[in-house]
Write a sequence for this structure.
């Protein structure tokens, strides 16, 4: 089955580069397509999904700050 990789992937059998076309066994190709890592040749690319709300909230939180210790006599 011919696929186009949407992301890069690596494993014991080699590296699959994003944007390149590969002819893979059906089971392996279908797993990559089902996972959203690839698309079938001739299939329209999927639009990117919106990030989950938890990620948006995490990105909008203020970074932690550290306060300096109060100046006092040194021992």
């Amino acid at each position: 089955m011919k696929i186009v990789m949407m992301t890069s992937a690596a494993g014991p059998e080699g590296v699959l580069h994003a944007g390149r076309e590969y002819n893979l066994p059906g089971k392996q190709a279908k797993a990559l397509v089902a996972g959203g890592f690839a698309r079938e040749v001739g299939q329209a690319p999927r639009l990117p999904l919106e990030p989950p709300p938890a990620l948006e909230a995490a990105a909008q939180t203020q970074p932690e700050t550290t306060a300096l210790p109060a100046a006092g006599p040194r021992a």
Remarks:
- The two ends are 74 Å apart (CA to CA).
- The first strand starts at residue 2 and ends at 5.
- Residues 35 and 57 are 25 Å apart (CA to CA).
- Residues 1-7+20-44 form one domain.
